[in-house]
Design brief:
Number of helices of chain A: 10
CATH architecture of chain A: Orthogonal Bundle
Shape of chain A: globular
InterPro entries (chain A): RGS (IPR016137), RGS_sf (IPR036305), RGS_subdomain_2 (IPR044926)
Distance between the termini of chain B: 45 Å
Low-confidence stretches of chain B: none
Helix content of chain B: 40-55%
Keywords (chain B): GTP-binding, Magnesium, Metal-binding, Nucleotide-binding, Transducer
Protein name (chain A): RGS domain-containing protein
Radius of gyration of chain A: 17 Å
Strand content of chain A: under 5%
Strand content of chain B: 5-15%
InterPro entries (chain B): Gprotein_alpha_su (IPR001019), GproteinA_insert (IPR011025), P-loop_NTPase (IPR027417)
Order of helices and strands of chain A: HHHHHHHHHH
Oligomer: heterodimer
Shape of chain B: globular
GO biological process, one term (chain B): adenylate cyclase-modulating G protein-coupled receptor signaling pathway
Number of strands of chain B: 6
CATH superfamily of chain A: Regulator of G-protein Signalling 4, domain 2
Structural class of chain B: alpha/beta
Order of helices and strands of chain B: HEHHHHHHHHHEEEHEHHEH
Helix content of chain A: 40-55%
Largest sheet of chain A: none
Strand order of the largest sheet of chain B: 2-3-1-4-5-6
Mean pLDDT of chain B: 91
Distance between the termini of chain A: 32 Å
Number of domains of chain A: 1
Chain lengths: ~200, ~350
Amino acid sequence: MIYPNDVMNEVLRDEVGCGLFKSYLKTIYCSETLQFWLEIENFKANAPPATPTLSGPILAFSSAPIESSPSSSSSSPSSSSKNRPSSPSGKYLSQEELRVSAQNVFDKYLENGSEFELNIDAFSRELVRQALNQEIDSSLFDDVQKVVYESLWMDCFPPFTHTAAYHKYKQDTGKCHLPEFLRISFKKKSPKKDDIRMKTVTK
Amino acid sequence: MCSKKDASVDFLNSKKIDREIKKEAMEVQPLKLLLLGGGESGKSTIFKQIISFQDEKTKKENTPSSDSIVRNIYQNIVVSIQTLLDSLYLYDLEISYEDRERAKLIENISEHLEDLNQHTFISIAQDLKYFWAKEVVQNIYNNPNRLFNLNDSAEYFLNGIDKYAVPQYKPNQTDLLRVRVKTTGIVEADFSINELPFKLIDVGGQKNQRRKWIHCFQNITCVLFVTSINDYDTVLEEDINIKRLDDSLQIFREMVNSHWFEKSAFVLFLNKVDLFKQKIKKVPLSDHLKDFTGRNESFNETSQFIKNKFLHTNKNSERFIYHHFTCALDTEAIEVVFKSIQDTLLSSITEIL
């Protein structure tokens, strides 16, 4: 069974597809969701990984093979980007730089009444506000990014697939016919799958 | 004297003009129906209902695929159970070691909802059922003063886990109406009734989405304002300092008196009346609306009181506001309401013509 978010992930990984989706979101006044999602992908690439805690998302950040996990995450670009070989520690931004960049994101997308305010609950917002005063790592926006991702695939993507632009894209590129091995993301991963990463979305 | 060439150009031009006139005549401005109201009041449910009354093509274009509805249902169920499990910790309730192991399984999956598929869901279905049936979870769920927000369809889906946890499961109309997807942005659907084009517009209701509303305020034929009448004791998800009823009254006041809608018809849906009837038995209305002096157990008195609060915000004595007590899930009732709105609009149009 192909799930729509697998198709969406494929679109997000593709520069042309991502561009089309972005233009569509503009027409329904919803572009801040994808914009935020992409900015966080970029933020995560520049921030050190979180120190694994027992209850925390160990999986996402460990370099160990993911076979042990009951919920492998190969099909999600957000997770696969986390599995990218991390850049050497020197490549991360400093804590001060990260704080400035995180605060900017917060003011732009999360703060009450901000220009691109996301549709998230008060609790999630306050958690991030508190975390801004602590040591900043790449997991800072994880929960919010997850909510935004959910609303992208549950709310925005299905109507996008009914647009003429999408149909043309599908025909032109032959995209969105998933290779067999991507269809069942629950199955154990073969090493090949780790190579599937986003190409262009982090900008 | 005009040359042969000029004549042919003229001829082509006049053809072109003819065509444009024809085209213009065909492009009648659609009747625009705009759904407004706070978050989780039921706008999208009414949207889905109105779509379901239209022809097959409209339905197909505006309904998500069956696969994606199934996914949404799985997501709704896992999130609901996870919320209930989180609340166990919130209330400091002890759970056994074995239960904790089972809970961890669910937590792991709710951490990676983007990967939740049918296989995963079926593999944890028994654990989800186990927790939902647990007495302590039921107690928390049934506590009228519970501290967390569960969507109104949680119980419906949680009671049907067995039905959803089979590979051949196909969602029915009720499942489609019940599934919760938060609307972000602006959703439009075009269809025609008696050859007249209609445009139905749905929006996200949370405070943070309202900045987008202005984009669809122009030339609205009819505003369908939805409020969840049972939300007299709850606060906004996006701002816990604001009561849902106060917020809903506030936006209704702004909209009904807005210059944008001076010429628009106004319909007020006092929605979720089924839940309201249950709630007034458990949560006295006068506890939350101090100015209510009627009988708390009387549906008639409580519901009329809230209705009047809305209608009294209207400052324009010329304006008539249609109102309906509804349960958006009740297809037959919504169809009757929609038919009556449709008739009112059509008759007012023929009046103008």
